Sequence to fold (491 residues):
Amino acid sequence: MMPFKRFSRRQFGRIAGWSALGMSALSSGSGLAQSDADSGPRNRATPSGFPDGFLWGTATSAYQVEGAVNEEGRGPSIWDRFAHTPGTISDHSNGDIATDHYHLYKEDIQLMKSLGTKAYRFSIAWPRVFPEGAGSANPKGLDFYNRLVDELLANGIQPFATLYHWDLPQALQDRFGGWTSRDTSKAFADYAAHVTGRLSDRVKHFFTINECSRLVHHGHEFGADAPGLKLSPSDVKQVRHNVALGHGLAVQAIRANGRAGIRVGPAENAVSCIPAIETPANIRAAEIATRELNAGYLTVMLEGKYTEAYLAQDAPKFTAEDLRIISSPIDFVGLNVYMPDHYVVAADNERGFTLAPFPKSFPHMKATWLRPGPETMYWVPRHVAKLWNVKSIYITENGTSSSDQPAADGTIYDVDRIMYLRNYLTQLQRATSEGVPVLGYFLWSLMDNFEWSDGYEQRFGLYHVDFETRRRTPKLSAAFYRETIARNAVA
Fold:
């Protein structure tokens, strides 16, 4: 394994905002659409624990589960090339077959149905739709997603589609330099227009871009993800701006080409800032830190401006029109929540906060980067709702890997995963009981899959996958999640 593989979700979350640290007044502006059909009375405490109508789901992404990388006209993505480059994937694997969801999707939908889930978050592979990234669409590109959506709806499961989960067409990387160019932002909008024009008769919720933070830092600063670049700080900020611009252009394209009632928002792993001790001063410091350390994406998207501290060093090139596009009104914010990136303490300095270092004794899950902090599930949506007046939030990812070794009786007793989920969901129920507008939760992941640079070594699924036979087997955590959904309360 190459040294940069040690970079993790935790590390890039901690690094993401270092150049943006600073103190500035909060804006009252918000990029949330004023008219939101999800609005109205919500999140009132119920005897069962979660609000009535709370949406329970699971999540996957195209390259991690689909396989079939050469079927029906799909073009190569940057992850196809990256995964086939020696030294990039810890177990030397790739996503060529993955879990073969492309062929086994009907079986997988039955797994969702058996859990009692009512929603499924999946991503659409851009290179299936536009093998060259732009230009002529592949006539068969959306056939799989049409079949998938129809099967989901036939089984009472709402489709939530993510338009970009990192699998950029390789042609755009070769032609433009990928996200280093605004041309890719424009191509993304064209792709978004094409997809929503054809799926929004049945798909009503679209996420634009998944985890801007990771795709920018891992893919363009650390070289740990596709396309494997190690750019200068100023170039990294320009990439981040281009990604945010792509989000804004896609929102506009979706509005222009989607059916009435369509809803759109991002899915971001916000840099999570947790008050080390719950005092008013520390809570306020954590809010300030949240705004500053997310300045390059959520803040500019929801306020229409970068913070002064963010622009103080290595500022990207942009126009006022760019900011207007980036802050195009959205309907919801998706949040991927795994762990605390920072514990925050109020401080008498120009920033107004101090980031407490993690002691070496801090615990972690099977994946060493995943340091559990259940309170993150309370504070992240609370901060987002308060800072930017967000009225609709979905937890778009949450979960953990586990050793997942079958016991003598054949059962996978993943009690560490159950412990993790129970504690995080308890904190989520705390948030909803206080009126934080979280409308639904998508567990990562439905099944074990290709976990990017970790290959198949980290298993995040409720269902164990034998990657030789593609057989799916429920783990004990599947029973936990099924019971939680049935009760609408933590089991």
Q: What stands out?
A: Residues 3-487 form a domain with the TIM Barrel fold (CATH 3.20.20.80). The first helix runs from residue 9 to 16.
